[in-house]
Design brief:
The chain is an alpha+beta fold and 181 residues long. Among the domains are: 35 residues; 87 residues, ACT domain (Alpha-Beta Plaits, 2-Layer Sandwich). Helix content is 40%, strand content 27%.
């Protein structure tokens, strides 16, 4: 069953509630909106502006980054650490522990590779891995002027991590970052 979370901010006050029923959540939202409106007119804020989705991508391009573990495809799709344990006819427990450790190492590596690239990006979309060899798949929205620094960072990361292949494609039109109207 879905849980619906409602967060309402009014000034410094933040109200949070969870509901099991969508109708209850909508009713609570409408009641809270009435309470806020009954307190008088809302003050106008200068930091609130209309946001055009085109502003998000103007002057920016998309770069695709995919990080692949180089030895994952040589063992029938199994990561090297897991395949090495399998070769020694381990118990099921040993196999699962090796697989868990490999997953933890891959997550740490993905974070280590992603963070410097994300720091150069205006926005990022990380995608789910599609195969055992995938360490990281991401789309990075980058200012055109930052492209040389982004590519240099990819090269630096590749030299620091010869155990993976880092593929950087683009610049592309920022399709991943344009929301449907």
């Amino acid at each position: 069953m879905a849980t619906y979370k409602l967060t309402v901010r009014s000034g410094a006050q933040v109200d949070r509630a969870s509901f099991d029923d969508l109708d209850e959540a909508i009713t609570a939202l409408e009641e809270r909106a009435k309470q806020i409106r009954s307190q008088g007119p809302l003050p106008e804020r200068s930091f609130v502006r209309q946001f055009d989705p085109g502003d998000q991508v103007a002057g920016r391009v998309e770069l695709g980054v995919r990080v692949l573990e180089l030895d994952a495809g040589q063992n029938g799709g199994a990561p090297a650490a897991v395949a090495a344990v399998t070769a020694g006819a381990p118990s099921g427990r040993e196999y699962l522990v090796a697989k868990l450790r490999h997953g933890q190492q891959a997550n740490r590596l993905a974070t280590e590779l992603h963070e410097p690239l994300a720091a150069l990006s205006a926005e990022v979309r990380v995608q789910a891995p599609r195969g055992a060899e995938d360490v990281l798949r991401g789309a990075y929205l980058v200012e055109r002027g930052v492209l040389p620094r982004f590519r240099a960072t990819v090269e630096r990361l590749q030299h620091a991590h010869p155990e993976v292949a880092i593929l950087c494609t683009g610049p592309w039109p920022p399709y991943t970052f344009v929301r449907d109207a």
